[in-house]
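> Could you send the NADH dehydrogenase [ubiquinone] 1 beta subcomplex subunit 1 prediction when you get a chance?

Sure thing. Input:
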Amino acid sequence: MALFGITTRYVWFAVPLSGFFFGKFLDDQETLRMTNFRDKSCLYGGRVKEGDLPSWP
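Output:
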């Protein structure tokens, strides 16, 4: 039985897939937030010269 065109087969496919993409979105946002602190830690930050690549992507 379909309700507004949504069947159980669709739900079994869409729910895990949407959970994966939502988790990937959250992970990407966390990585983007953490890049603000790249090479600025007193404990792990090294001497980064102007124009050098950061220590991690």
